[in-house]
Design a protein that fits this description.
alpha/beta; TIM Barrel; 7-stranded mixed beta sheet; 12 helices; binds iron/sulfur cluster; Elp3/MiaA/NifB-like_rSAM; MJ0683-like
Length: 347
């Protein structure tokens, strides 16, 4: 292991990365203040999704672990624990970078055992988070996929994807490329607190617009829909209307899920920002990580109705495949609404 300590307060490399070649850097620029990058040379890059997974894709590529977009609800927080890293603030600031991802991918795609399956990216953490501006791994990854005409999809909140527009167009000319942007809300006040490191929702919708203008269809994963915070009829309408105006090919709603790791972090945020909602969330998520089926059905129905009203078509084949919702069923709880959340400003 190589250990290179740069800057003040660089923490120890995560013990789960021992045995790999690690360089950890704390970058003292305004953009990355307080962020540590753990640069590793991965041994493999194409991940096979376990058969028991409910994910509708079989293979993924994740050049990063951790995400400076810092969404308080992020379901990937738990995976930082596998590296002995903190799943709260550590997830937002301790970023593992697989610096050899492009060359490794090119090699694995050329191996005789690789059968050309669709590869999904942005399924664990965002591959166009701010670190990508520094490490520029995605151009090499897209080039490798383009050169093998290997179908792929990208889900992102990062406007940085537009940097790679020419490459995406080249790839789309030879294979199936599905781009999906994640926009669960357009409420500026809520966005600043719940997704503090992300580009604003309007900027993300600009990405949808720009891709469409350049002949790359883009869908929107309307996720997560935050119960009691961003799910009023007026809020859903504002979000779907903005998504439609951006020219999205489809919109797929997904209610918040709270797996261990994300749950503790999100609930602490909720207790601080919206204490009146804590009890309602405890009731809604009493059955596990997923909102009950009645809630999912209600959100899906409302969003689909709005999508039809605003003329957004159904999800097309090849668009980013979003996780299927849980089939858990539970009775609708009788809890009084939090009066505070009706005051949120809609864009
Ligand atoms: S952008 Fe995606 S991966 Fe990054 S913190 Fe937000 S939800 Fe997690």
């Amino acid at each position: 292991m190589r250990w290179n300590q740069l800057g003040e307060g660089t923490p120890n490399a995560p013990s789960a990365l021992f045995g790999t070649d690690v360089v950890s850097r704390t970058i003292d620029t305004p953009e990355f203040r307080g962020v540590t990058f753990h640069e590793v040379r991965a041994r493999t890059i194409i991940n096979r999704v376990p058969g028991a997974s409910r994910m509708p894709f079989t293979h993924t590529v994740n050049p990063y672990r951790g995400c400076t977009h810092a969404c308080v609800y992020c379901f990937a927080r738990r995976t930082h624990g596998y590296l002995d890293l903190d799943t709260g603030a550590g997830f937002d600031s301790q970023i593992v970078v697989k610096v050899n991802a492009p060359e490794l991918l090119r090699r694995e795609l050329a191996a005789p055992r690789w059968n050309g399956d669709h590869i999904a990216m942005g399924t664990n953490v965002d591959c166009y988070q701010r670190a990508e501006g520094r490490y520029r791994l995605m151009p090499g990854i897209i080039e490798a996929l383009r050169d093998r005409a290997n179908p792929f999809s990208i889900l992102t909140k990062g406007t940085l994807i537009l940097r790679d527009l020419p490459l995406l167009r080249e790839a789309a000319a030879v294979t199936d490329v599905g781009i999906s942007v994640s926009v669960g809300l357009v409420d500026a006040e809520l966005w600043r607190t719940v997704e503090p490191g992300t580009p604003a929702p309007e900027r993300r919708l600009d990405v949808v617009r720009t891709l469409a203008e350049h002949g790359i269809p883009c869908s929107v994963l309307m996720a997560p829909v935050l119960p009691y915070l961003a799910d009023s009829p007026a809020q859903l309408r504002a979000t779907v209307r903005a998504i439609a105006a951006a020219g999205a090919t489809s919109v797929t709603p997904l209610a918040l899920h709270l797996r261990p790791g994300a749950r503790e972090w999100f609930m602490a945020w909720l207790a601080e920002r919206h204490p009146g909602l804590v009890r309602r969330y405890e009731v809604l998520y009493a059955g596990g990580a997923y909102a009950p089926r009645w809630y999912q059905r209600r959100i899906t129905g409302q969003v689909h109705e709005l999508a039809a009203e605003y003329g957004i078509g159904p999800a097309r084949a090849g668009a980013h495949r979003s996780p299927r919702p849980e089939r858990a069923e539970a009775p609708e709880p009788a809890v009084e609404p939090d009066p505070g959340v009706t005051q949120l400003t809609l864009l």
